[in-house]
TrEMBL record:
SUPFAM superfamilies, A to Z: Immunoglobulin (SSF48726)
InterPro entries: Ig-like_dom, Ig-like_dom_sf, Ig-like_fold, Ig_I-set, Ig_sub, Ig_sub2
Identification of the protein by name: Contactin-5
Gene label: CNTN5_2
Pfam families per record: I-set
Cellular localization per UniProt: Cell membrane
Alphabetical UniProt keywords: Cell adhesion, Cell membrane, Disulfide bond, Glycoprotein, GPI-anchor, Lipoprotein, Membrane, Repeat, Signal
Family note: Belongs to the immunoglobulin superfamily. Contactin family.
Membrane-protein topology: Lipid-anchor; GPI-anchor
Domain Ig-like positions: 20-104
Signal peptide: none
Main location (coarse class): membrane
Gene3D superfamilies reported for this sequence: Immunoglobulins
């Protein structure tokens, strides 16, 4: 019985600190101009991870049509200029992990022959 107690305590201590691990990642997406993009990434870890977003290698912040809340990214009425490579970064003091996806916005026009 005493040995079981030590094992249980060991397991509990093991989970007190951990590098983030993905629970939900973002995926490549194609959509029409004017649609609403909603991506969510989610990670677990100890301490709880924080999130940041990157577009084409540059930090992405909430402004205008772009809204970022933790691991959720929303872009209202996507445009061609929103196309690119996106990264969701989950991080804590033990390290960071990246989820990558490409967003392709299809033209909002028709070609007639």
């Amino acid at each position: 019985m005493f040995q079981g107690y030590i094992t249980h305590s060991y397991i509990s201590l093991f989970y007190l600190s951990a590098l983030p691990q993905w629970v939900r990642m973002i995926n490549d997406t194609q959509m029409d101009s004017g649609e609403k993009l909603q991506w969510e990434c989610k990670a677990i870890g100890r301490p709880r991870p924080t999130y940041r977003w990157i577009r084409n290698g540059l930090p992405l912040t909430s402004q205008g049509r772009v809204e970022i809340v933790n691991g959720e990214l929303t872009i209202n009425k996507v445009q061609q200029t929103d196309s690119g490579m996106y990264q969701c970064v989950a991080e804590n003091k033990y390290g960071d992990i990246y989820s990558n996806a490409e967003l392709k916005i299809l033209g909002g026009y028709c070609l007639y022959y």
